[in-house]
Amino acid sequence: MYISQVTNMKFHPFVGASALALGACAYEPAPLPNVTAQHAVTNTAVSSPIKYQDPLAGYTYRGPTGPRDWRSVNQEQSEGN
Q1: 20/63 Cα distance (integer angstroms)
Q2: CB within 10 Å: which end of the chain, N or C, has fewer?
């Protein structure tokens, strides 16, 4: 039983190497036809021009108003108010 396992383990790399060798010797497939020229003629998609949109449109500056007591700020933001 042990001898067949060792023989089987030596057999796997040989099978893998032979598959790679046969794949390298395979014939070169025929090149695909150039169909980009055909698509350009039949493509009827219309694209609209892209308009610039300012990413900062609608921005309002909210600068710091100064240090305040944290207790009063928490009281203003509590659910009771």
Answers
A1: 67
A2: N
Token pair of 64, please?
């710091």
Task: Flag whether pLDDT at 41 surpasses 60.
Answer: no
Count of the separate structural domains present in the chain: 1
Note the pTM of the prediction, 2 decimals: 0.27
Residue 3 falls within a domain, yes or no?
A: no
Distance (Å) of CA 55 to CA 48, 52, 58, 62: 20, 9, 9, 17
Q: Is residue 5 part of a domain?
A: no
Range of the domain at 61: 12-77
